[in-house]
Design goal:
The chain is mostly beta strands and 224 residues long. The protein is built from no helices and 21 strands.
């Protein structure tokens, strides 16, 4: 079930053009962006919960990070609407589901095993800060291993991106053109360690989730 397993290469997935694939849990489907491993895997995925669907209680041995893209995600810690950013560190547990249905962008088994930091924020209630012409930034998380932000890019902005420690972008709103491809909502781009690219923001601007410097260590499948 692996996908985009060579982290030395650029990878791109336009997820809305891909079919949904059923997960082992009824009512929960997914579109895999990258994956190393079998059912227990280091994975980056778009996951869709049907209304009323629910996972059984479980522990995230390797941690879980996600952004709610549509609907409302729920667990015993609260209701998390679109725009919520969540980090459930290794050894945390919950019972996820959604009464109305939701779609999330989720990353599994990508934490420092010693990380115990919970993050639960509603980005709709946070502010962007201008950092360069046409670029606004909202910090979400940062440590010695990675940096996670939201960015808003003004229409027509041309950007040169360097990825000394690797880079991932998920389009939340709007889009951009890069490498001869048009990236729209829920499109995903990964640059390898040492990668570079240039892009031009679409006429409507763009809002993106970005993770940097997390590929300094070679990604590996979980040891289970």
């Amino acid at each position: 079930m692996g996908r985009n397993e060579d982290f030395t290469k650029r990878a791109a997935v336009h997820s809305t053009k891909e079919p949904w694939v059923a997960s082992p849990m009824a009512g929960v489907d997914r579109r895999i962006l990258d994956r190393i491993g079998d059912e227990v895997a280091r994975a980056t995925t778009i996951v869709r919960y049907a209304p009323g669907s629910k996972f059984s209680p479980h522990v995230h041995t390797g941690g879980e990070e996600f952004v709610v893209l549509e609907g409302v995600f729920q667990d015993e810690h609260g209701d998390f609407p679109a725009g919520s950013y969540i980090r459930n560190p290794p050894e945390s547990s919950h019972t996820p589901g959604s009464d109305e249905g939701c779609t999330i962008f989720v990353k599994l088994w990508q934490f420092d095993p010693k990380d115990r930091t919970h993050i639960r924020v509603d980005t709709n209630k946070m502010r962007f800060v201008e950092t360069a012409p046409g670029v606004e930034l909202m910090p979400l998380f940062s440590d010695t291993r990675e940096d996670v932000v939201l960015e808003r890019w003004a229409a027509g902005t041309a950007l040169d991106l360097d990825a000394p420690g690797g880079l991932e972008i998920l389009v939340l709103e709007g889009g951009f053109r890069e490498g001869g491809e048009d990236f729209t909502a829920q499109s995903w781009l990964r640059l390898p360690k040492g990668g570079q690219t240039s892009l031009t923001v679409a006429d409507g601007g763009a809002k993106v989730w970005i993770k940097r410097d997390h590929l300094n260590e070679e990604p590996k499948a979980p040891n289970t």
